[in-house]
Amino acid sequence: xxxxPPRPIQKKFNETSNYxxxxxxxxxxxxxxxxxxxxxxxxxxxxxxxxxxxDWLIDRKRLGERFPPRVRAQELWRVxxxxxxxxxxxxxxxxxRDQEAAGLDIVTDGEVRRESYSNRFATALEGVDLDNPxxxxxxxxxxxxxxxxxxxxxxxxxxxxxxxQFLRAHTDRQIKITxxxxxxxxxxxxxxxYGSLEEMAMDYAVAVNAEIQDMFAAGADVVxxxxxxxxxxxxxxxxxxxxxxxxxxxxxxxxxxxxICFGYAAVIHARPSGYSFLPELCECKACQISxxxxxxxxxxxxxxxxxxxxxxxxxxxLSTNEIETPDEVAARIRRALPHVxxxxxxxxxxxxxxxxxxxxxxxxxxxxxxxxRLVRAELGAQA
Length: 383
Ligand SMILES: [Zn+2]
Hints:
Largest sheet: 7 strands, parallel
Keywords: Metal-binding, Methyltransferase, Transferase, Zinc
GO biological process, one term: methylation
Radius of gyration: 20 Å
Oligomer: single chain
Number of helices: 10
Bound molecules: zinc ion
Distance between the termini: 25 Å
Cofactor: Zn(2+)
Number of domains: 1
InterPro entries: Met_Synth_C/arc, UROD/MetE-like_sf
Pfam family, one: Meth_synt_2
């Protein structure tokens, strides 16, 4: 049902969409004639979503000392509100250029504009009271302030379309954008309105669906839905998780991915030996499933349970600042090869880079690209 992983196809830069400040030269002319050799189309590399934000933009120490924000956390930004968007744009360019310099095939905006992966979208919706937030248990079991749902969840307007347009305008590579999943957002809210969590999650799904359609229309090559709480709350996920996820993907024809994980290594330290919610994802409409295998040393035979999916294979351990060698990365890729055809593998970190120092994030990204190259060459030699 899903085609080959996204290929690094060159897109023409659309001059008319360049209404953003270009503090870096935009690749034009000869740079556009990139022709990838067939071999380089195997094992494309990408990040899960977030890149390390600069210290001058956000108070990373405070960010790291608290649970990921579910309501807004304006106090974390170091830049005054009137200059914040400009600063976030500039920091996004840095994130894009770092990914390009490291050699990634599919780049994201680094989620530089977000305080957490989910709250930028979740707090923009109608039906939530942010001034009088509620409480929900985080996946660690600790209470965290969350949006209090007091009315019907509805998307008032597109939330991340400008983010996609900005990214599209500033790179020639394939682009991916992430959006929080409906199941996860429902777990990160206090329900004071709906008769059931499923009903609430379904309205989140309608909002996510509209956003996904808009993000593809704005030029996204891949849209990734982040659903880490499917792993954290497997019983509820089994009950209605796939239904709401598929509602979010209804009518979507572009390449979609779902990321599930064990939580940020910086926040959730322990790793179980395997996923509690995995084979069930066969039933979801997304093409790609993003999983972590590095820190958890996942038994990759479990990947055979997702025969109809491409696997975004997590090969970077984000619990340590130690930068992997390309050989280590290559070994982690090889672990998956007996269980997933190489054509169906996309190479990625375990999770987001948000809490890593920038130089570490860059080093790991580079090692990942070099490790993928090693295995690509081996596969070419075998072919
Ligand atoms: Zn994750």
